[in-house]
Design a protein that fits this description.
This protein is mainly α. Helices cover 42% and strands 9% of the residues. The termini are far apart.
Length: 468
């Protein structure tokens, strides 16, 4: 019988979370989206950082979107920084790199930075930087570039050049910057490190059992300094807010002296917490003056990089959005890049934009000539942020169909009714003039693209044009 292992449980949860979000690939839609925002058995859940970025970028808020973020915020107020070691696919990937380094020591030859065993750092600059940058440019910047979203979108919707960011994270780890992305660059880690201060879940040490072998210190990736201080001072709790509750220290303890515990409101050793808090060096748990100045400097840098949201929206390549999409500027600000609308699309019309689409990265779009929109109107129902608004089919305005009469068979005195017969608003959006010539009514046309898709010409004589 296998001995209970927190690390083994954690591996199962990590792998299970990835597989759960890949269920749509098998035709099962009980789980939709990514870790930015998901719908699980009908319940919408949103990453609080994603909510904050969209709120600042769009300057608007909906109650349902707020509630979806509060569920997750409340969960991690209790569990602390557990997201980083139990849920995050980047953490899973980095631990895989560690395993390869142990198996193939030659990988460490490119290491240029040496870590000390009790190194304990967390830099908070990325959190205010991305939030302020989202505010001033009108786009949820981190959600657009997030390697977590990139990994899930790569699995679900295909690879793009943006996966190079994942390779950069791997190279950073191989270069010796242990948990370099997580400690220095990830705003999600910084956010949960701040919220973890109120988590009651702590690592507790039975001082009567502890033999001071320091195996737990060697195994810890984040809070080795706090564990070392707890053991040397004979204290009960490791108090660092950087603890990811991974359970490694508990698993490696030969005396079984460590365990997870709910810290009581009043510790039996009041002064121990004060000493343990001192172990959280300024860079590790508290925001030091230097860290604060770094954050302020980068916030100023974000302000200096300000460009009006309209200018950024104008710079993004023009694409056809799903039905119910708000205007370009507002859409780029509100879209969480979660992919739920793409997954729920029954005809697989919607695509996820890659890096070649610039600021559209991660957002949904479609190409009428490849697969048109059937106007099923399911995608607005799963959008958490209001980037897609529920509408009646007749209210949709994706674009307007235009006919090139010089190329249309019907206008060359041939018989062709492909566009007319296929139009979902037959005899309304497209009418037949003189029983032979198709004519588009721009007031009724939805821009679904079905007419362009069915056009018999190799280069379609009827095409959807974006509305100005």
């Amino acid at each position: 019988m296998l001995k209970f292992s927190w690390n083994r449980c954690r591996r199962l949860v990590q792998a299970g979370m990835i597989l759960i979000f890949l269920l749509p690939l098998t035709g099962m839609y009980q789980v939709l989206g990514t870790l930015s925002s998901s719908r699980i058995l009908g319940l919408t859940l949103t990453d609080p950082l994603a909510f904050g970025e969209v709120l600042l970028a769009s300057k608007t808020i909906t109650m349902t979107f707020l509630i979806s973020a509060l569920w997750i915020a409340g969960l991690y107020l209790f569990l602390g920084k557990a997201f980083c070691s139990w849920i995050c696919p980047i953490g899973f990937l980095i631990e895989g790199v560690d395993a390869l380094k142990r198996k193939w020591p030659w990988l460490t030859r490119i290491q240029i930075h040496k870590n000390t065993i009790d190194e304990q750092n967390q830099y908070y600059w990325a959190l205010p930087f991305f939030l302020v940058l989202s505010l001033v440019v009108g786009i949820p910047v981190f959600q657009t570039l997030s390697p977590i979203g990139i990994i899930y979108r790569a699995f679900l919707f295909g690879l793009g050049l943006e996966v190079l960011l994942i390779l950069i994270i791997i190279v950073l780890e191989l270069a010796g910057y242990r948990r370099g992305w997580c400690r220095m660059l990830c705003p999600i880690g910084a956010f949960y490190a701040l919220s973890a201060r109120w988590s009651p879940v702590k690592v507790r040490c039975d001082t009567d059992k502890c033999v001071q072998c320091f195996q737990c210190v060697k195994a810890c990736d984040y809070t080795a300094a706090s564990l070392k201080n707890m053991i040397e001072e004979g204290k009960v709790y490791a108090a660092s807010s950087l603890c990811t509750r991974c359970g490694r220290c508990i698993d490696v303890c030969p005396a079984r002296a460590l365990q997870f515990s709910l810290k009581p409101e009043k510790s039996p050793e009041p002064e121990s917490m004060a000493i343990a808090r001192k172990a959280d060096t300024p860079a590790a748990g508290r925001i030091s003056r230097r860290t604060a100045l770094q954050g302020v400097g980068l916030v100023v840098l974000a302000g200096l990089s300000y460009k009006p949201a309209k200018a950024l929206a104008a710079a993004a390549p023009k694409v056809f959005r799903p039905p119910g999409a708000v205007g370009d500027e507002e859409f780029l600000a509100k879209c969480v890049r979660c992919g739920k609308c793409i997954e729920i699309c029954p005809d697989k019309t919607l695509l996820s934009a890659h890096l070649d689409q610039g600021l559209n990265l991660g957002t949904p779009y479609f190409i009428p000539r490849q697969i048109p929109c059937s106007l099923c109107m399911e995608c607005p129902d799963v959008c958490p942020s209001g980037a897609l608004v529920p509408l009646d089919m007749r209210e949709v305005k994706i674009g307007i169909a235009e006919i090139d009469q010089d190329r249309c068979y019907a206008y060359q005195d041939d018989v062709c009714r492909s566009c007319y017969n296929s139009c979902p608003l037959i005899d309304e959006a497209i009418k037949m003039e003189g029983f032979q010539y198709p004519v588009v009514d721009p007031e009724i046309c939805t821009g679904c693209g079905i007419c362009e898709y069915v056009c018999v010409m190799e280069y379609p004589a009827i095409q959807i044009k974006r509305m100005s």
